[in-house]
Amino acid sequence: MSFVRVCAIGLALALTNPVAALAQASVAFGGLSHDTSLPVEVAADRLEIDQDDGTAIFTGNVLISQGEMRLSAGTVRVVYADQTSADGTGEIQNMRATGGVTLVNGAEAAEASQAVYDIDAGTIHLTGDVIMTQGRTAIAGNSLKINLNNGSGVIEGRVRTVLSTGN
Fold it and tell me: 119 in the Ramachandran plot: left (φ > 0), alpha (ψ -120 to 50) or beta?
């Protein structure tokens, strides 16, 4: 069964029989704890670079990989750290993904309209019709903030979920 279909089923269940309807929910994202110092690999159909503002825009079937973590989207804008800094490393400051964002790490996955990955902070903030699956459990909300350093996260905005009882 495809990831999108599992998410759609989970959301349908959550909307018709919500177990919890909270403004905010904290959840453990053990599978989403991640080493942000690993190299970032990007594949896309097109790349546009702007040296003036220090950005690169990847479009079309974008796939970003860092270790076991995968992020796919229609478009990803990479913002580099200040090019005029003394060290001149050109390190990535953040990545902004739009257009059908999917984040997968291990058995956990999330979908959203947009995502911002702040590499230095080790955080990913997904917004817009967020659905996260953890095994057979699906959680939906408006916003999901993941701390990759410790695997914790917060879902906000009309949180809906169906909890698996193990049967």
Answer: alpha
Please report, to the nearest 10 degrees, the dihedral formed by the alpha carbons of residues 54, 57, 63, 67 taken in order. Answer: 0
Q: pLDDT band at 47, cuts 50/70/90?
A: very high
| pLDDT value for 83 | 55
Q: What are the Cα distances from residue 75, in Å, to 3, 36, 42, 93, 135?
A: 20, 21, 11, 17, 28
- Which tens digit of pLDDT belongs to each residue from 133-156? 887 788 999 999 999 888 888 999
Which residues, including other chains, have CB under 8 Å from residue 69's CB and lie 6 or more apart? Answer: 32, 34, 103, 104, 105, 148
> What is the DSSP annotation of 71-97?
EEEEEEEEEESPTTSSS----EEEEEE
Tokens describing residue 4: 């999108």
- Phi, psi values for residue 162, rounded to 5°: -125, 120
In the DSSP assignment, the letter for residue 1 is -
Q: How much is the pTM? A: 0.74
